[in-house]
């Protein structure tokens, strides 16, 4: 299919060029268009990746897509649940044809030079339970590769602390409700999910979340727990309380192990 232009490959040593090199396979725009014409959902496919992508961004993209694959596992295994996912490469939903990013958010900025802080999550998705009056939960996803500063002394806008402040303001302002038209559902709050690339990084992020109340809407886990138990299981540290019993983002009634199945 590569010679027909449906896929492209890139050799990569997984984990920032460590380990045995592998051929990473990506859908091209032509391949994505073909699948969409055939009626195959491509919401979980990587798009827009070029040969110029650096190893860190490739690892980040892979982990984001693994998260999406595990979401798909939830939808396949628990039929009452319906999941819609938007990524930074998703086309604008509906008839939105302006230049704004489909999942960008903004909050009032402290910097006098600009009025708003704009930020783009790694994903925005909804989970709807069809059998309970179409109840829908909204989630924002941040995949953390351990490369960003947790909290800088000069409060640079790129650190994790600034990200949390942005989401806290988004929660307080209610501006997240713009997603009601995107997901065609009534929304009452949201959860911010952090997926860390290591247990050590998870501990650091949990500590930061605890130090920045209100943070009960922040749920954190790491990739090891995701791969071994799946996203629906009790693997999440709510509010950064990693010493408390972990919880499931689906609630106790739907919590279950759903690890990735190879077949």
Question: What is the strand and helix layout of this fold?
Answer:
Blueprint: E1 7-13, E2 21-27, H1 29-37, H2 55-77, E3 81-86, E4 105-108, E5 116-119, E6 123-129, E7 135-144, H3 160-173, H4 179-183, E8 191-196, H5 199-210, E9 218-222, H6 223-229, E10 237-238
Parallel strand pairs: 7-8, 8-9
Antiparallel strand pairs: 1-2, 3-6, 4-5, 6-7, 9-10
What does this structure look like?
With 263 residues, the protein is α+β, with helices and mostly antiparallel strands. It folds into two domains: 1-53, no CATH class; 55-93 and 101-263, no CATH class. 27% of the residues lie in helices and 22% in strands. The chain is built from six helices and ten strands; from the N terminus they run ββααβββββααβαβαβ. A six-stranded mixed β-sheet has the order 3-6-7-8-9-10. Strand 8, helix 5 (199-210) and strand 9 (218-222) form a beta-alpha-beta unit. The longest helix has 23 residues, at 55-77.
